Amino acid sequence: MRICLFTDTIGDLNGVSRFIQDMAEQSLLYNHDIQVISSTAKYCPKAPNIHNFQPSFRFPMPFYGDLDIALPPTKGIRKKIKELQPDMIHISTPGAVGYLGLKIAKELNIPFSGTYHTDFPAYIKDNTRSEILKKMTDRTMAWFYKDFKLIFSRSKEYIDVLKDDIGFNPEMVKIIKPGTNLNKFNPKHRDNAYWQEHGINENATIALYVGRITKEKNIPFLLDLWKEYVTENSFDSIYLVLVGEGGLKKDALKLYDYNVRYLGPIVGKELSKIYASSDFFIFPSLTDTLGQVVMESQASGLPVIVSNIGGPQSLVNKDKQSGFVVDADDKQGWLSAIMDLHCNTQLKKEMGINAIAEMSKYPIEDSFEGFWKYQKEIYDGS
After folding, report:
1. Phi then psi for 99, rounded to 5 degrees?
2. 93, 197, 214, 284: least surrounded by Cβ within 10 Å?
3. Are 353 and 370 members of one domain?
4. Phi-psi category of residue 190: left, alpha or beta, with phi > 0 → left and psi -120 to 50 → alpha
5. Whether the predicted pLDDT of 61 surpasses 80
6. Do 237 and 161 reside in the same domain of the chain?
């Protein structure tokens, strides 16, 4: 069976890109045929089964300028699909590339499925504060996915959102078991001298955030929270480090005197080193369907602080304490969690050990196996 996976994002620093890269890599390791089709002018990883086509035209996404809408070269991609002759088509994003994949699947009568990776309606609401625009986006998502044989979700927390807001039949939604690469994200990559390269004392505590530096990731809340924590406690021994890209990076740069450091987008081996060389991870997003970075940080030995809204909370073992799940609006709760991981060395150590143990349950191989199994069921039943 050959699957062609269509995606509008492939090299960006986000969980969708990382998941697709993992699926492409695993398919090569296990001799399962997945061919990735994308169209981006940004960075694209090199692999024999990743086919990137330069866009015919691109422009910033309305209300979300950190992402491009790239119009793919239709003729070139159609030619590639005729060459590859896929048995299944999988749509990972509801953008221009995903829509082209959907059209091709229908025209050629190829069975197709999709993954609901990103809660775009929630993003639109966060960026515009408009309930009308959110509902319009809900209807657009419902129209896009209405003919899919099966929809995959990355976490059970989003089943109700898919059912209530977008109208998916829960029986048509399958959960793909979360997974991360436990070799790439591992405490063994720790480098005790790494932070000195950025002018930070090696004995300082590093609170890490990885992801888009944007409003819908709740970055304004994080920066306000951090400024209050440092101001109230007069701490100079703790730093907030942000890795990623986005329109609010200028706000992060303004807080240099409050021990905020913005490193920009980083991928590959250096990102693995950054995770393992930090002390804890903080991720206040309310709109993530899973939170791949929450898995990567725990696999690297970091306790995490996440919100009680969205998918990331499902990755934290509350009983064995691999991190804190804090009420989204409870600022004091967030400040207390930061204080605990900053000042209680033993607690931080124990939570880090628990985080590693928790993530050992989620190898990327299991995630790939589930992804392939569901695709095979659709193909065999078509």
Report:
1. -65, -40
2. 197
3. no
4. beta
5. no
6. no
Q: What is the CATH classification number for the domain harbouring 233?
A: 3.40.50.2000
Give the per-residue pLDDT at 272.
97
What pLDDT band is residue 124 in, cutting at 50, 70 and 90? Answer: confident
Shared-domain flag, residues 125 and 195? no
Coil, strand or helix at 321: coil
Question: The tokens of 240 are what?
Answer: 């907030």
Pick 360 or 59 by higher pLDDT. Answer: 360
Domain count, the chain: 2
Instruction: Say whether pTM exceeds 0.70.
Output: yes
Lookup: tokens for 309: 């809204």
d(CA 281, CA 211): 11
Could you tell me the end-to-end alpha-carbon distance of the chain, in angstroms, rounded to an integer? 13
Residue 219 domain boundaries: 187-359
Structure tokens at 289: 């369907």
Q: Are 246 and 310 found together in one domain?
A: yes
Does 15 lie in the same domain as 149?
yes
Q: Coil, helix or strand for 349? A: helix
Q: Kindly report the length of the chain.
A: 382
Using an 8 Å Cβ cutoff, are 8 and 96 in contact? yes
Same-domain status, 315 and 270: yes
Q: Would you say the C-alpha torsion 71, 91, 47, 108 has a positive or negative sign?
A: negative
Query: Using the 8-state DSSP alphabet, how is residue 178 labeled?
Result: P
Single out the residue of 181, 189, 208, 206 nearest to residue 359, CA to CA: 181
Integer angstrom CA distances of residue 199 from 258, 288, 290: 14, 32, 33
